[in-house]
């Protein structure tokens, strides 16, 4: 009977030739090769972080806390008392746009772009196309990291604090806390505002000329959460501040590696020209001795 048993090694070899297995192995190989290529392209772009005033983060934190406390003391109680009596037109307009602040659609788009950019076969592309793929992948990676990690931390904090939403104002007031309650009860900080703050801060860092429109859109979209009765103003201020800061922090991490950003003379992360992901040696080999224009 033992003589009739199929050889396990042969079975494994046959399984490895199945179309699905070949596709998975091919994808795995492309991802590995792309990581190696990206590492080579980025190796010469690691940046030394300049000295920055240590008070910068402390000042931002102090200003954010002051705004949160001010919003809580001045606006939260009036919002709790009167949000149900606001004109129906306010509520209708706010509800028509407030879901744009959900993280799902942004993370899905950025995640898909990141996946397909990473899974593409860079070996078949020219240097210029490889650089374009690397820039797009790096940019979507920055956006995805900023929103996903920042949103996850905000959700954990919200769950731990457990501040009651305006929906429970009549019963519990504006400053009731029940830690470790579900998300339908917990209010602080606003997850929508965190996404909005992180997204528009990231856009403003990559495209500085859009800073003013980004600020206006971020404030409008975030405060629709107040108009629909889902959050207090202090929830929104905290979410905006946290989301914006986390995108800034992620940009600093990327700048230290020369990806998408670099440090300016004052230690702030600013976008690289062309995202600065060229490697002179690879360009020389690709151009077969021809002198190419140096990519910044």
From TrEMBL:
It holds the Pfam family PAP2. Keywords: Cell membrane, Hydrolase, Membrane, Transmembrane, Transmembrane helix. The chain crosses the membrane at residues 57-80, 100-120, 132-157, 185-207, 214-232, 244-263. The keyword Cell membrane applies. The keyword Transmembrane applies. GO terms for cellular component: plasma membrane. GO terms for molecular function: hydrolase activity. It is a multi-pass membrane protein. Residues 139-251 form the Phosphatidic acid phosphatase type 2/haloperoxidase domain. This is Phosphatase PAP2 family protein. It comes from Pararhizobium mangrovi. The lineage of its organism: Bacteria, Pseudomonadati, Pseudomonadota, Alphaproteobacteria, Hyphomicrobiales.
